[in-house]
Amino acid sequence: AQSVTQLDSHVSVSEGTPVLLRCNYSSSYSPSLFWYVQHPNKGLQLLLKYTSAATLVKGINGFEAEFKKSETSFHLTKPSAHMSDAAEYFCVVSKTDSWGKLQFGAGTQVVVTP
Amino acid sequence: EPEVTQTPSHQVTQMGQEVILRCVPISNHLYFYWYRQILGQKVEFLVSFYNNEISEKSEIFDDQFSVERPDGSNFTLKIRSTKLEDSAMYFCASSGGLNMNTEAFFGQGTRLTVV
User: Fold this and answer.
1) Which of A40, A94, A98, B76 has the most CB atoms lying inside 10 A of its own CB?
2) Each residue of A30-45: pLDDT tens digit?
3) Nearest CA in chain A to B94
4) How high is the mean pLDDT of chain B?
5) Domain ranges, residue B36
6) CA of A81 vs chain B CAs: smallest distance (Å)
């Protein structure tokens, strides 16, 4: 069995300041981990993925995440928030050999203020 | 850039009616999925489809649900007799390659409202 917990339902940041979205996972298997973003009226877009290669993963739009097995965490960060980063972010886990069946976290709504 | 498209974007239906949600996956993808998100809840896996048959389904995907790839390009989700609790955003996704080792690409979703 596997699951993810996103520790914050809402995060508010000022433009130009760092963003941290926290995610903890549990998995009976070697997991693959993803962050997806959903902008209003848009589909779910993949930001980045971890698949047992490098533990620090770089994604699109300046985001990165670090897989920490000892802490069972996969937190998403960005050094400097932009207004366009306002969206909902989902941490997602799957079995490494079955990427299609995804287990979603509850989501974190990010608000960026000028 | 190739994308998954879903129609309609919003569907309102009366309880007990049949609905068909439509999806056009990315053309060279082999694996297709439906997920749903009830308002205020997590995105949940419904079903995966490969080689013209269901490869995996969740407990949610009961006899009221069915999927079909009728013409080699569309991928549909049918709900035979809708209930109020079927109201949700339904997402179609596809992934490609010779194995499942690629990420899923999602459509924009269809918001289903059952009244």
Assistant:
1) A94
2) 788 999 999 987 889 9
3) A100
4) 91
5) 5-97+106-114
6) 24
